[in-house]
């Protein structure tokens, strides 16, 4: 696949422009409702599908199908990521109007980290072909482990990341609006919102370790790997607000994701020395597994409406009072002279 530097820059410019539009549209902290989340989800999916259609038109059916297979894998794994975010936000009792900012920065960090992972993975595959065996084995083991642990959920209270963060970073016990840092009595402190952002970033790193090898099983084109990842990730924020209250209904989704990982692991193993499974077949298998798992989930939970996760009786953090907010000092200390005027020598 011949991709010019100008095309790479154009795609990166499109992604940056989309992030800017999203940031401008949500510049004020507010609770994002289902209707707004559904509208934004439709926009992001339309952009991702539209880009895939352009790849199909410009580079042919084979590469177009590879993009859509990768996009479908990333989008489906992202749903599981969304459910983990819902558990984290519920545990910390993060006010809904502050969640978008955390997710925006989390997605921004995810784009950078996944870009580095993809570049590293492509370099490894180009230099050491045997790495594909490790990727395939990793996908099979991860899929099998996910299948066995399909009824288990992440527990933020036992998070090592949170323990390390609280051990080494001075931290307040209250949310102070959308601030990640505050200064109180001359001391710079992290807010719980920064701890949540760190957990979101670490969670995405864990999911990237699964998803990057999985997408390399359906395409070895770095351009397609990156764009499928990017366009799938960009819609995560809207997807979260759309699906966060429906976690209880996707009871078989984790089983479907486990089977997808195992399928692409087998596909990668066969691709190395035995047989190349056509992308059309691979795309059909992935779509069927995910479609059936979602259909069975919704069928098994039909009649159940939206329901927020159960928050802890005693949340670990609270919301700062108006008096506490009013007493905050500027995070950046000003130099002497900027407030009281320049210091003059005594006469």
Automatic annotation (TrEMBL):
<feature type="transmembrane region" description="Helical">
    <location>
        <begin position="6"/>
        <end position="25"/>
    </location>
</feature>
<feature type="transmembrane region" description="Helical">
    <location>
        <begin position="102"/>
        <end position="124"/>
    </location>
</feature>
<dbReference type="GO" id="GO:0016020">
    <property type="term" value="C:membrane"/>
</dbReference>
<feature type="transmembrane region" description="Helical">
    <location>
        <begin position="37"/>
        <end position="57"/>
    </location>
</feature>
<feature type="transmembrane region" description="Helical">
    <location>
        <begin position="223"/>
        <end position="243"/>
    </location>
</feature>
<feature type="transmembrane region" description="Helical">
    <location>
        <begin position="187"/>
        <end position="217"/>
    </location>
</feature>
<feature type="transmembrane region" description="Helical">
    <location>
        <begin position="250"/>
        <end position="270"/>
    </location>
</feature>
<dbReference type="InterPro" id="IPR022369">
    <property type="entry name" value="Integral_membrane_TerC_rswitch"/>
</dbReference>
<dbReference type="Pfam" id="PF03741">
    <property type="entry name" value="TerC"/>
</dbReference>
<keyword id="KW-0472">Membrane</keyword>
<feature type="transmembrane region" description="Helical">
    <location>
        <begin position="77"/>
        <end position="95"/>
    </location>
</feature>
<protein>
    <submittedName>
        <fullName>Tellurite resistance protein TerC</fullName>
    </submittedName>
</protein>
<keyword id="KW-0812">Transmembrane</keyword>
<keyword id="KW-1133">Transmembrane helix</keyword>
<comment type="similarity">
    <text>Belongs to the TerC family.</text>
</comment>
<dbReference type="InterPro" id="IPR005496">
    <property type="entry name" value="Integral_membrane_TerC"/>
</dbReference>
<feature type="transmembrane region" description="Helical">
    <location>
        <begin position="276"/>
        <end position="298"/>
    </location>
</feature>
<feature type="transmembrane region" description="Helical">
    <location>
        <begin position="130"/>
        <end position="147"/>
    </location>
</feature>
